[in-house]
Specification:
Blueprint (H helix, E strand, L loop, with lengths): L27 H13 L4 E5 L3 H16 L4 E5 L3 H4 L5 H7 L5 E6 L6 H9 L2 E6 L13 E3 L15 H12 L6 H17 L7 H13 L5 H8 L1 H4 L4 H12 L4 E2 L2 E2 H7 L3 H33 L7 E5 L4 H15 L3 E6 L3 E7 L6 H7 L6 E4 L3 E7 L3 H10 L3
Length: 402
Amino acid sequence: MGGELFMKDNLSNFPGVIGDKDRDIKNLKKAAQRILKAISDQERIIIYGDTDVDGVTSVIILEETIKSLGGKISAVYFPDRDIDGYGINETGLKILKEHSPALLISVDFGVTNYKEVNSAKKMGFKVMIIDHHEVLGKLPKAEVIVDPKQKGDKYPFKGLSAAGVVFKLSECLFKDKLAGALKNNFLELTALSTIADMMPRESENKFFIEEGLASLKNSFRPGVKVFFENDYFKDVSDFSQKVFKILSILNVRDVKNGLPASFRLLTVSSVEEAEKIVIELLEKHKITREKIEKTVEEIEENSLKQKEPIIFDGKESFESALLSPAASILCQKYKKPTFLFRKMEKESQGTIRTPKNVNSLDMLRKCSKHLLSFGGHAQASGFRVKNKNINNLKKCLIKNSK
């Protein structure tokens, strides 16, 4: 990552930021009304979010919004990607079943979880999906779906992060009275998510990044303050590079009591506790970087000898947490669509990175008959495949990469 983090622009060009309510994201008001009803009726509310920075910041903004409005969160749940894979899954639903009936809100995924939403409904959950990923044909039968990329959405800007969508939902829930320290803090989280998820730095995202980063240095969150006081970050004079370092630490995979390190750090109440978490993450980050380098070297030795138009590699020994950064490195270095996966007993879970001129979702659509599921963005997506179909999937991807 590099370049300018933000650019100034005329904010009146950004619908929603200044008050253009004629072009709201489809179902945004409906979602706000449903959540306010749940708060008023004292319904149980569950937030089910992704484990990356975008997912975690989305969960935090939504949770703190609901609590600020008097609602109670019965559970916050993050899936274990190594065990359960990406998105809403049966394992998570079984764990959460004890809270049923409840309003279950998924953030940063859900638009491809057709079967899982049906399962959730059978368990007594009312399901709301807040997402920003590409919609692959039909939609799950959820009570409310908010996604700027769904059919019939007339919102002009489609490049929001999940946290960007949740920020706009928070504004709607507060009835445009979101202000002061809380608004600035939500903007900080939205800025981090927008940069981390590599969303286009245009339209509203310029506003989110500019305002969020301007507030970041004076954040009231202990988990953000420690980054600007830790010696590891003091040596970095360029603010842009400091933000990228912060994001690299927040991306370290470290789950305790079902909660990712980034969630624990960004919600911790004391500087002392935040410092402990950061020290642990810095050590893990160092180890992780070494593992990523070894994984990249291993793939280069094995896969690049084939001289194929794509990089396609997977093993049982691969760690899921390392695959996304490894795929990014390989894709940038060799300018090839990169498909990496971890083999499990019967299935494999994979991640994809592609050059700017290649749409990974288009490739996956053409090979969908070999897949169990897939989803994501044009240049960064994921898939799940039965092991018996891996060779056929590879042949199909090669065929459709030419």
